[in-house]
Amino acid sequence: MGLLSLGTPMTWDDAKKKSDFIHGHGITQFLNVWEKVSGTKKDSEDLLWGDEIEYSIVNMDKNNKVARLSLNAAEILSNLQEDELLQQNYQASWKPEYAKYMIEGTPGLPYGSKLKDLLKVEDNMKLRRKLIREKLGKNEVVVSITAFPTLGAPDFLYPNYYHPNPDPKLISLSPDLFKNIDFRKYEDQLSLEEILDNSKPSCSQSLFIPDQAITDHARFPTLTANIRQRRGSKVAVNLPIYKDHLTPKPFKESIPESISLFVDRFAKHQNKSQPIDKNDNTLYSPSISSGSDGSDSESIYCHSLNEPINQETLKSEYHNNQYTLPEVIVPAKEDHVYLDCMCFGMGCSCLQVTFQASEIQEARFIYDSLAPITPILLALSAGAPAYKGYLVDTDCRWNVISGSVDDRNPIERGLREALPGEIKENGQPFEKINKSRYDSIDSYLSIGPDYAKTGHDNSKKNTFKEKYNDIDLVYDKDIYNNLINHDVDDLLAKHIAHLFIRDPLVIFNELLYQDDENSTDHFENIQSTNWQTLRFKPPPPNSDIGWRIEFRSMEIQLTDFANAAFSIFLLLLTRTIKALNLNFYIPISKIDENMQVAQVRDAARTKKFWFRRNILPLQENEIEDDTYELMTIDQIINGFEDEKGTFPGLLCLVCEYLSKSEVEKDVFNKLNFYINFISKRASGELVTDAVWIRDFITHHKDYKHDSKVHSSIVYDLLTVLEGVNQRRLKDLLKIIDTVGVNGIFSEEEKVKYENEIKTKLEHPSQEQKETNLKKKRIFESLNNCYSKKIKCFKEKETISSSSQDIPIENANSEYVR
């Protein structure tokens, strides 16, 4: 989670007036850091790194077989933080997350730079889960799941006496259905209880999630309210429904309880036989309307679609139980699941990894190199096939969280032109902005691989090409010029100036005036609310932490083994990129395409992604070929051969890096498990968590093939995951398909349960049967790569699965293109 300051937050009306103040001082703070440390360098042998895992606490109602997200997580977090403060050598650190049912956990200290330090990762993740489990209340479990399948569905929260409290004037009601409503008369008819409820304004105005699900820290409800108010309407995300053979056609969500009374009270008095006048836009007043005093105010009927409104004629007869959500709420769509608040995105969990770099140019190169990897690992780690009690036709959280914090107003989203006098507080015009502030990166930062260091003619050096930054980058020209005048180069100046097109969303009164020499709070105010796939992180002031890169696209995994495997693979990949001077550059627009493909159902096994074909350093007299092509994830990770030659695959490159390193046997053997897991996920031999969860739901006895995820199904899913925590054999066997035998069983358990494991493997799931396990690929295992002395790099030479392992201490290789 980003900057967690304490104080009294400003309302949006006050905060927007301080935007230029925050921008100005934020840039000053960045420049102060830049001038002090832009030229410093750390010892490359002592670089640290770490991970961040977001857990969810769930209450298990055994009597009714209902699993609910538990607000008791706040008390558990408090107890964990007290232990962290009081106990010596405590090996975990805890922080709040957006949702009150979530807990963020990181290692107490960063991991070291030695390969043997990699063995600490999974152990520390297991320890963190154990520490949480020790604090759980009765009937509570801890899970690492990307999206809780019934978040926002009826009765999803514990305690279950909290209910959403939306204001009917602010929830994007259909103007045709309610255009004759006199809200003053409506308010006169409210009961005392309803009046008291409405006297406590909701920061999210959600129809589905009460504000009590949001963490109490002032940052979070303020973010929620200010995003909505800056946007001029509620956020709106529509996910396509997964169409099973009994799913209604068209699928239309029912009206939630939070507005059913309102619909019942007023819709029956309307004449619904008249069609909507498509030329009448009076009730679609601008989402941001400028008053004579220059202030922005929310209109009564604000739509929040990123496309023209689909206006429909409503039914001519009133029956409350026949009304559906798309008929009542403008942004809601047929054949989609409608999500309407920040919690649907920020209430999801992810896995993030941060790396130190030795100096700024290395950090920028690693940042650029990891950019094309972000959608690949998003697809490989996919874990979110269900939302609000429905199966959806996507597998990832990314677009949900991107839409849930999208504070762009209609002008910035390109929905309409600015009205006369409709300008920012500083008098500047609003510009169209291509993406939400939570999205993929928009530009590269580095000049590219330093091919000169290979000893070849410097004229052969391949540098960054401007054509790779091929999307329109909106940036603050004044800030850019200021940075350039302080000797910040063009690429980095545009990156920072692009971040600063966003307004500060949370400003604390007590922290407005700061010492810019010794604080970066105003810079981090903007930086930490640009939630992109990667984050380029300057060091804090007066610190030796150095420049860092945060990898942010991955979904959280169900097991500690899988989370460790992805984290370790990323660390090894960054080391490999640097050691072998690899070149992954493709146009940013192709990365954006890949990000969308990555979220398609079962994309890891069924889709292709743009990737650079020639990623190895140029040899002497070799002409650069920077072509890119569509590849499967199996090909990208494991390598392949075709008429063009050999693409080594990322894992063979990691092998090459490891072959030049001193690796102890126990470290090697454990790394082999992690690397093979990544390889098998890529090949499809192991399925993603999203595929496994979807398969669990669709094969459950209570699933009716109508796309609905009943509470009993979620309860049984959580029972299996808790069974994994408790090492119950039947549950360990169930999860083999997504993590593999080595990922779920210890060496002792593999011996103890040998027969049961063998039986399970002899009867694979339908998903595994559909996977072609005989795909020809270059990488098979670390052992095979070592035994062949990394001959996977040689053109037209494959690895034989019958190769005999050789001792690690005798393994060596030469770099052969």
What does this molecule look like?
By secondary structure, this protein is α+β, with helices and mostly antiparallel strands. The chain has a domain at 768-794. It is 35% helix and 10% strand. It contains 32 helices and 21 strands. The strands form seven sheets. Strands 1, 2, 3, 4, 5, 6, 11, 16 and 17 form a nine-stranded mixed sheet that branches. It has a two-stranded antiparallel sheet with strand order 7-10. Strand 20 (640-642) and strand 21 form a beta hairpin. The chain is globular, with a radius of gyration of 27 Å. It starts with 11 loop residues before the first helix and ends in a 30-residue tail after the last helix. Its EC number is 6.3.2.2. Pfam families: GCS (PF03074). One of its GO terms (cellular component) is glutamate-cysteine ligase complex. Belongs to the glutamate--cysteine ligase type 3 family. This is Glutamate--cysteine ligase.
Q: How would you sum up this structure in a few lines?
A:
The protein has 817 residues and is α+β, with helices and mostly antiparallel strands.
Question: Top keywords for this entry?
Answer:
two-stranded antiparallel sheet, ATP binding, 9-stranded mixed β-sheet, 10% strand, 21 strands, single chain, ATP-binding, nucleotide-binding, 32 helices
Outline the fold blueprint.
Blueprint: H1 12-15, H2 19-37, E1 49-61, E2 66-70, H3 73-86, E3 92-96, E4 102-107, H4 119-135, E5 140-143, E6 157-158, H5 175-178, H6 183-188, H7 192-198, H8 219-231, E7 237-240, H9 257-266, E8 289-290, E9 296-297, H10 325-328, E10 336-339, H11 343-346, E11 351-356, H12 360-370, H13 374-380, E12 386-387, E13 390-391, H14 398-404, E14 438-439, H15 477-485, H16 490-499, H17 521-527, E15 531-532, E16 534-537, E17 548-551, H18 560-580, H19 588-598, H20 603-606, E18 608-612, E19 628-632, H21 633-638, E20 640-642, E21 645-647, H22 650-659, H23 665-683, H24 689-698, H25 711-725, H26 729-734, H27 736-739, H28 741-744, H29 747-752, H30 754-762, H31 766-769, H32 782-787
Parallel strand pairs: 2-6, 14-15
Antiparallel strand pairs: 1-2, 1-4, 1-5, 1-11, 3-4, 7-10, 8-9, 11-17, 12-13, 16-17, 18-19, 20-21
Helix pairs in contact: 2-17, 4-18, 13-19, 15-16, 18-22, 18-23
GO biological process, one term: glutathione biosynthetic process
Organism: Piromyces finnis
Pathway: Sulfur metabolism; glutathione biosynthesis; glutathione from L-cysteine and L-glutamate: step 1/2
